Amino acid sequence: MTTVIDGKAVAADVVAKVRVAAEQLIAKTGVVPGIAVVIVGHDPASQVYVASKGKKAKECGFHSIEHALSSDTSESDLVALVEKLNADPAIHGILVQLPLPNHIDAGKIIQTIAADKDVDGFHFTNVGKLGTGELDTAFVPCTPAGSMLLIERALGRDLSGLNAVVVGRSNIVGKPMANLLLNANATVTVAHSRTKDLPALCRSADILVAAVGRPEMIKGDWVKPGATVIDVGINRLDGGANGKSKLVGDVDYASAAEQAGAITPVPGGVGPMTIALLMANTVVSAFRAAG
Ligand code: GUN
To answer: Which of 52, 169, 223, 270 has the most C-beta neighbours closer than 10 Å?
Structure first.
């Protein structure tokens, strides 16, 4: 029997714990966890994400502010805003929504965020800490951290001796995901668009993580029987029922679910975990700031 991994339920669990932790911090120290989300321009998908981050922050009892800037905001104005947030003691987490408009160097903005407020885990300091296994003081990127929680819950065992294949090598998901799995003693391979015989490689995976942004690319006959399949993809396909668009992952769910031991659906798998882990990183940051 295939287990459908309920990311919504696990995320709700994480959020409930974050809320309790925030209440305890406030009661003990008076410090209210604070998060600032910055969005530049009008990308509709980004606007939806940012709105749901603000809503979840309020649910956790956080102080939450949003800066919505016009698409012609200059790089230097954005740097100045990030520096202001770095210096604001009421803010413990700063998230600049990506992608940014082309005239702004996203790398420069990310490196301007203070490493100890970088709840996205994209700053070199946090990337380096994850790479060297210093997870106690790192901020780990939210999507891979959330995926890892789902893997641990699904397997309920140490990952020693298991083969993990991560399809996709992005800085936001693929690379940090590989580091987390390696840190948990899995044997890890990172596949990408130049990988030879991807189906055969995927068939060797006890844990298969798909993060490529290609709708339904990974087919059921690429999945080892009993494998744990984590689908990070969120792709909007036009022309679903009633002409509405339909969300699908990077995995062909129907055929993969016939092979997998456990699999995340889209939506309702990894998606809700990302925001939950953002809240978790923010409350951790507030605890660190409070001493
Ligand atoms: N855009 C898509 N995913 C993310 C994310 O995890 N963090 C930020 N800042 N922007 C994103």
So the answer is: 270
Q: What is the span of the domain harbouring residue 215?
A: 142-271
Q: Which atom of ligand 1 is nearest to the CA of 46?
A: 1
CATH of the domain at 177: 3.40.50.720
pTM over 0.95: yes
Whether the complex's predicted ipTM surpasses the cut of 0.85: yes
Does residue 108 have an active-site annotation? no
| Structure-token pair, residue 94 | 């700063």
Q: Ligand 1 atom 4: the closest Cα is on which residue?
A: 98
120 is catalytic: yes
pLDDT tens-digit series, residues 95-146? 999 999 999 999 999 999 999 999 999 999 999 999 999 999 999 999 999 9
Task: Judge if the beta carbon of residue 262 lies within 6 A of ligand 1.
Answer: no
| CATH for 57 | 3.40.50.10860
Whether 211 is in the pocket of ligand 1, judged by its Cβ within 6 Å, is no
